[in-house]
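#help-structures
NK: newbie question, is this the right format to request a structure? protein is Phosphatase PAP2 family protein
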Amino acid sequence: MDYHLFRLINDLSGQYKMLDRIMLWSSEYVTILLAFALFGFFIVGLKKKIYMKTALFTGAALVVSMGIGYVVKGLFYRPRPFIEHDVNLLVLHNTASSFPSNHTLAAFAIALGIAVFHKKVGSLLLLCAGLIGLSRVYLGHHYPLDVFAGVSIALLVVFLLKKSLNKLERGTRRHVTKRVS
């Protein structure tokens, strides 16, 4: 199933010049745009507390997600599609483990982290992150399962961090309420 879906997406590569350019650009630069979005939240956060909270939460989600991703990548080597199969490869890539997709993992960690606090901006960033994941398969660098693993790790980390933050904030409110009483 994974290889079949890979073929459906990667076989489009090289067929349409405009689509090739969009996918190359997405894979290379949209991750950078997401990083700039995170940096923007930090800068604005110097004046508005909610933006700093967003930036710190998202930064933590990114660091933890990438850490988990690197551990998983070290434990489970999976050859990239272009090593095992004849694929449409538009740009060369290193031969490190394909599983999970670091580009996708980072993109979704940022997009999901921001979406927790800012739904509209987060929705737009999630679309961008989805485009990155699709582009990684289109370019022949990852299988769909690699992308799915990146999304899953980021989603799990953001969910657990948000749950921990909520618990921490509830405990802080209870502590402040008891002191005031």
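mod (FA): yep, format's fine, and the tokens are attached above. DSSP finds seven helices and no strands in the chain.
NK: thank you!
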